[in-house]
Amino acid sequence: MTKNGAGIHTVGTMNPSDLMTSEPSSPTATELSTPAPDRATRAAVLERRRAKRGTAEQEFTSDFSALMAQVKEAGLLARRPGWNTLRFVLLGLGYVASFAMLFLIGESWWQMATAVVFGALFTQTAYVAHDAAHRQIFTSGKVGEWVSTIIGNLFIGLSYGWWLKKHNALHHANPNKAGVDGDIAPGALVFTPEDARERTGLAKWFAARQGWFFLPLLTLAGLQLHVESVKAIVRGQSSIKRRWIEGVFIGIRLIGFPALAIWAAGPLIGSVFFLVQLAVFGVHMGGSFAPNHKGQPIVPKDVKIDFLRRQTLMSRNISGGRFMGFLMGGLNYQIEHHLFPSMPSVNLHRVQPMVREYCRQKDITYTETTLLESYKIIIAYLNRVGLGEADPFDCPVTAQFRSR
Questions:
Q1: DSSP secondary structure string, 52-71?
Q2: CA distance linking residue 337 with residue 344, whole number of Å
Q3: Phi and psi, residue 369, nearest 5°
Q4: How many CA atoms, within 13 angstroms, populate the side-chain half-sphere of residue 335?
Q5: Confidence of residue 376 (pLDDT cuts 50, 70, 90)
Q6: For the Fatty acid desaturase domain, which residue ranges apply (predicted)?
Q7: Over the chain, what is the mean pLDDT?
Q8: Taking the model in full, what pTM does it have?
Q9: For 12, which of 178, 205, 213, 308 is 20 to 30 Å away at the CA?
C-alpha cells in the first residue's frame, strides 16, 4: 500500500489491457426483476461461457468469483436481524425525542437545534431505507420494498421507485460511466469537459468555478431529492410500482412536517426551522454520497470493464473507522458496498481487509482517503473539468480507460 501526496492510500497498480474486456453481468448488483430466460437463451449463454474458457475474460470473471467464495465462507453476507432491530428501535426513540423537543421548546429560536437533530435523524433513516432497498435487512424482497417505500416516502420525502432505478439499476450497475450513471449527469454541476464546453454565458462562468460552489450547493441537495421524487411520481415513472401510495405518503411528509413545525413553533420560527432542517439533511446526505465517487475515474460509455475492477476502480473509501461508519451509514466502505451491495452495512468493516488484500494480490488500485482530502479532490476536479479544457482521462488512473 502506498500513499501519494494528496493523502490517498492505494493498493496495487493496473494493466490497461486488463480492463478492455467484455462486461459480465454484475453478480451481486441489486437489479429490477427480469423474466427467467428460456431454454434457447440458457443454451446460448452456456455456449458463450464454453467459448471463453481459458481466456483472459474468464480469468477476470473468476477473479470476483474467488473473492466471493472467501466472503461467503466467512459468513459476512448473512443478515444481522439483531443489529437491524436495534437500529429500528433507536430510530423510533430518536423520533420520539425529536418531536418532544419540537413541541416542548415551542416558539423559540432554540428550535434551530431541533432542526439540526431532525436533519441528522432523517439522514440516518435514509441509510436504513438504502440498506433495505439493497435487501440487506429482509429475506423477503416484497417486505423490503414495502419498508423502503414507507420509510423513503413517508419519513424522508423520497420516492422509493424513482430512487431504486436511479441508484440500483443505473448507478450500481455502471458507476461513473458517462451517459449511464445518473449521478454524473450534467445539472447544476458538470462532470466532464464535454458537458462544460456546452455551457454558455452565466452557466459557463459558474462551471469554471463550480468546485467552490460544491459545498454550498449541498444545502440544496435535500430539496432536489424532494423535487425529483415528486416529478417522477406525477409523471408516472415506470419504475414506480405503487404510484398512488407513494404519492399519498410523500404528500403527507412534504406538507405535514412543515405544518407541524409551524404549529409548534409559530409561522416565522417554524418556517426557518424547516429550511434549516432541509439544509442539514442535504449537507449530511449529499456529504455522505459525494465523496465516494466524485473525482474518481469517469469511464467512456463504450469501454467495458469486468465487474471486480468496475466497482473497485470507480469507488473511493473514506477512512475514519467505526465513527465514520456511523456518520456515513457504512457508505465510507464504498468499495466493499459496491462489490457486495446485499452485505449488511455493519459487516463492511470486517470484509475490508479481505478486499484490500485481494486487490493487492491482483494489482488492482484500491483507493482510500480522509473525508477532508476527498472534498479537496472533488473541488479541484470540478474546477478543472468546469473549465472545459482539462481531460478527465489525464490522470494516471483514468488514462488507462481510454478506448483504443
A1: TTTSHHHHHHHHHHHHHHHH
A2: 9
A3: -150, 180
A4: 30
A5: very high
A6: 108-369
A7: 84
A8: 0.81
A9: 178
Instruction: List phi, psi (to 5°) of 177.
Output: -95, 120
List the alpha helices (DSSP H) in 106-242: 111-133, 141-149, 160-164, 193-197, 201-208, 210-218, 221-235
Rg, the chain, Cα only: 22
**What is the rounded CA–CA span in Å between residue 64 and residue 60?**
7
Please say whether the beta carbons of 283 and 324 come within 8 A.
no
The span from the CA of 122 to the CA of 128, in Å, is: 10
The rounded distance, in Å, linking the Cα atoms of 337 and 321 is: 15
**157-195 pLDDT tens trace:** 999 999 988 888 788 988 988 888 888 888 888 888 888
Give which of 3, 7, 78, 14 is closest to 376, Cα–Cα: 7
Say how many Å lie between the first and final Cα of the chain, rounded: 30
- The grid coordinates listed for 143 are 417486505
Please state the separation of Cα 20 from the chain's center in Å.
25
- Residue 244 identity (one-letter amino acid): W
Lowest mean pLDDT, pick from 131-145, 175-189, 268-282: 175-189
Q: Give residue-wise pLDDT tens across range 298-340.
A: 888 888 888 999 999 999 999 998 899 999 999 999 999 999 9
For residue 13, the model assigns a pLDDT of 45
Q: Percent helix, strand, coil in the chain (nearest 5)?
A: 65, 0, 35
Between CA 368 and CA 320 the distance in angstroms is: 10
CA nearest to 163, candidates 244, 88, 228 = 228
Q: What is the model's pLDDT at position 11?
A: 53
* Contact between residue 365 and residue 14 where contact means Cβ atoms under 8 Å apart: yes
CB atoms within 10 A of CB 49: 12
d(CA 384, CA 340): 32
Tell the burial category of 186 from Cβ atoms under 10 Å away from its Cβ (0-12, 13-18, 19+). middle
CA–CA dist 77, 348 (Å, integer): 10
